[in-house]
Amino acid sequence: MTAEQTPRPSRVLVTGATGYLGGRLAPRLLDAGYTVRVLARNPDKLRGVPWAEKVEVARGDLGDRDSLKSAFADVDVVYYLVHSMGTSGHDDFAKTERESAENVATVAADAGVGRIVYLGGLHPQTGDLSPHLESRAEVGRILMESPTPTLVLQAGVVIGSGSASFEMIRHLTNRLPVMTTPRWVHNRIQPIAVRDVLHYLLGAAEATLPQSRAYDVGGPDVMEYGEMMNIYADVAGLRQRRILVLPVLTPRLAGHWIGLVTPMPRGLAMPLIESLQYDAVAHEHDIDDVVDRPEGGLTPYRESVRLALRNIEEGETESSWADTVTAPSDPLPSDPHWAGEVVYSDVKGAFLGTEPSVIRRRLGDVIHSDDTRGWRLDDDGSDDVRLRSTARIAGTAWLRYRATSAGGGTRVEQRIDYFPRGLAGRAVWYGSFPLRKVLTGRMLARVVGDIDRA
């Protein structure tokens, strides 16, 4: 389908706005000056999102053609970012995906949508594909064969906290010093940072599109899957993982194994594992002709992993929707429950009758003058007093003191957050429980006593 040069689009529709990429793309579209409408089966999931009041919210389901008509009206660009993993079986999964693509193609053509942008997956150009990859490729074909000009981006493993592919690398590497894997561990992969995927998605809205077609996108590194796991281990401060290849380990058995040793659902792990049977490398770089590369170039894999793990270095255990504006690799509240690092916390509190502003000032003075051996003060710009552990342990620990208003006085909270490193880190946390319970209680009592004397 030939696409003529069109004026700059003004109104875009994002499907899957509560999903991994949609939730990160919507605020960037707003920042770029677009009028944004989002489609959600359950708009209540957007409650509390800072940018929700800046977008139009339409209720709809890709499986219900009639529900899409009002959402697609007066839209210049539709972002198709909805993709299920087929937990109900491959046949039903493929049929559902096909019907959704056909609904989008039909409604977009009837509504006069100027362009569809779809994110698919990198895959071999010939031969059979896994049901998961074949379904994504089929959705792309349906959209490109429609009357609406369509730009398909095909990406491999997306690196960022919350990405299913990255979370599988994270959980397997964190939990298993020795791994038994199928032969796919030696397949070639071209990962891409989530910030670079978002860059291409944003650019796709205005890219010159002579005809509907697919473009491969990938980061600057091509490596084996096993290399990706060991680079992750290096960045995370873990020992290199031993990988034992077992030719008899089928994708189905591997999927069951991952569902057992990681928090990822088996129904999600299975299609991911099946897709790893194939190389995922860009076959062309034509995207460079229509979308400029990110300023500073594409993000190397090692740097992508570092960005995804930066919450450990900064001691952040909670994320907010606002993080999407500056840190696309950070976790979001909408990410699945199995995403992100394991964080162990020890929280204790005490009540003081003085108002919070006075306590905060005294708290800072007490901590600065107190013996803080084993901890280093870290100023994060907040009213809290935060320290980082300098002890040589299998993980990273942070100590935070916070004063909040409570019952006419102040609650002083002492919180230790511990990011374990590998199995040894988990053993340290559980093995130290009796001693930690005594010591943390004494720490809080000493701080509260010093505040009273101050």
Structure summary:
It contains 14 helices and 18 strands.
Give an account of the 3D structure.
The protein has 454 residues and is an alpha/beta fold. It contains 14 helices and 18 strands. It has a 7-stranded parallel β-sheet, with helices on both faces. The protein starts with 10 loop residues before the first strand and ends with a helix. Residues 1-5, 86-90 and 317-327 have low confidence and may be disordered.
Rg to the nearest angstrom?
25 Å
Proportion of residues in β-strands: 15-25%
| N- to C-terminal distance | 76 Å
> Order of strands across the biggest sheet?
3-2-1-4-5-6-11
Rounded mean pLDDT is 83
Overall, the morphology is globular
Poorly predicted runs of 5 or more residues: 1-5, 86-90, 317-327
Biggest sheet overview: 7 strands, parallel
Topology:
Blueprint: E1 11-15, H1 22-31, E2 35-40, E3 56-59, H2 65-72, E4 77-80, H3 90-111, E5 115-121, H4 131-144, E6 150-155, E7 158-159, H5 164-175, E8 178-181, E9 188-189, E10 192-193, H6 194-204, E11 213-217, E12 223-224, H7 225-235, E13 242-245, H8 251-261, H9 266-275, H10 301-308, H11 310-313, E14 344-352, H12 356-369, E15 375-377, E16 385-389, E17 395-406, E18 409-420, H13 422-431, H14 433-453
